[in-house]
Amino acid sequence: MIKKQFQTESKRILDIMVNSIYTNREIFLRELISNASDAIDKLCYISLTDDKVSLSREDYRITVTPDKTARTITISDNGVGMTEEELENNLGVIAKSGSLQFKQDMAEKGDDTSDIIGQFGVGFYSAFMIAQRVTVITKAYGESMGRRWVSSGAEGYTIEEWDKDSFGTNIILDLKPDSENEDYSEFLDDWKLRSLIKKYSDYIRWPIVMGEETVNSMVPIWQRPKDEAPDEDCFKFYKENFFDSTDPVSVIRINAEGMVSYKAMLFIPGAVPYDYYTTGYEPGLKLYASGVMIMDKCADLIPEYFRFVRGVVDSPDLSLNISRELLQQTRQLKVIASNIEKKIKAELKNLLNKEPEKYLSFFKSFGLQLKYGVVNNYGAKKELLQDLLLFYSAREEKLISLAEYVKNMAEGQEFIYFACADSVAVAKGLPQTEPVRNKGYDILYMTDSIDEFVVNMLSEYMEKKFKSVFDDDLGFEVESKSEDTDENNQPLLDFVKETLGDKIHCAKISTKLVSYPVCLGTEGPVTLEMEKYFNSIPHEDGQEIKAQRVLELNSGHPVFSALKNAFENDRERAENYCHILSDLALLLAGLPVDDPSEFSSNVWNLMK
Ligand code: ADP
After folding, report:
1. Residues near ligand 1 (Cβ within 6 A)
2. What is the pLDDT of residues 377-409, one digit of tens each?
3. For helices 97-109 and 8-18, what crossing angle results, to 10°?
């Protein structure tokens, strides 16, 4: 028996594994099972051309056997096995891409390994995270004699001839002793091992057997044809795997062949996860390479604006041993991601057209996310997302799409009219909506604080420009009751401004008011909604953003005559009117009055 040294690089990685305090050390099982599965694949492949392989497909299996007394776990396969040379080259030297990449990353990151171990197929060496000694008994296909390889870590390994009946490999792990902080014995527990197999290796194509029972399901639901995976089964799979008690709104099945082959099963959740709009929510899809899970949440597969989508992607074209950083750059992943984006959009559009009720419930949950998607990155994705937006229609009294709005536009109507307000009720009461409604035009009530930014970003839809009902020029002749001019009323308007001081930028005679005596408009780029939005997010003191408020008066209204009369005959009363009108304008715009007690006493004074 000869004692040999590990190659220097292997030694370094082994050291890391042996001394690992990494909490995810349970992945050792995934790694060893995946090696065993590969070894079976290889023998199975040989058997296609070599009829001396006496096994048939049904005979292949991987067994996992814990032994509590001996404190060992044995993982066996009847795959291709290893020759002496292969034992040396495969287990003594790091030659494989995954491990090499691991080594390079280690060099970059220094000794902080905690976050990278789990991202790699660190493979065989991961056994040393839980074992103080690893024994490999193997017999290569075509050899008459087996070999035994033993190592207790970085100091080296031994290889000797060993009797073994059949081809394949047994890996025996002698567990490290438990200590105050570390519980290795948990891996001897039957239930624990089964749950790890289910968790990481459920979809390995070969049976993984414990006792007499096969633990893994072997054919994953996303690999089955549609008639063998009815929606109910998919929903059940979703609820079990993605910790949601609500049925998803829909399931998207993808079976792609071409530049990159992959299968995917994606779900649009039916309910908003409690942490969805917080930083605690981790987006991403489960990523499998040839049936082995390589990442639990691969965020690169899903664009930010569809981050609510959950599901699984499985591709034989992805390498198992690849770091997260490298994976991000692989061409295959990018192809899959862009394909997935299109499929999700198509599914949502399909829902919108064919099952509007379902789409509505989806939109109530995740519409806000889509709106953020329109605004983010300077509108880079607005073309993709604009068809999916819904807004409240004044005419229909429900949420409608922009396409519906445009389709139902009146003869001669040029613009898509919208009104931003905190709620539908406030929007309905906005004096500015009256002339548009009277004209027979529908108005979209925009009640999310992001909406105005969405509209600014879109600027038009199907060649129809958006127009705010607050706009001075509504694009048509308004039949206003307020026909007087500012010039005729300058002394009164100056008086109003003087009385109200900083509360307003100016007062003017409205050209748009119909039945309301007053409304609050703005001048300049900052609207009232923007003012509300900016002031709701933290900002430095004294940096408050304020819209330039304009108090618009309806000169055709009896209230205006009353104001004018008071201005000419009773200045004190006129001042009182000014304050009340300004406060009423605020209330109609959905804003609080500056001083409720002053407002109240102004009204009481009137009643006296
Ligand atoms: P990787 O699987 O990433 O190539 P590992 O360190 O896990 O790296 O394994 C190194 C090599 O050892 C494998 O590529 C394979 O050739 C060989 N090997 C490991 N386990 C087995 C096994 N159970 N049967 C046959 N060969 C194996």
Report:
1. 31, 35-36, 39, 77, 79-82, 90-91, 96, 98-99, 121, 123-124, 169, 321
2. 889 999 999 999 999 999 999 999 999 999 999
3. 70
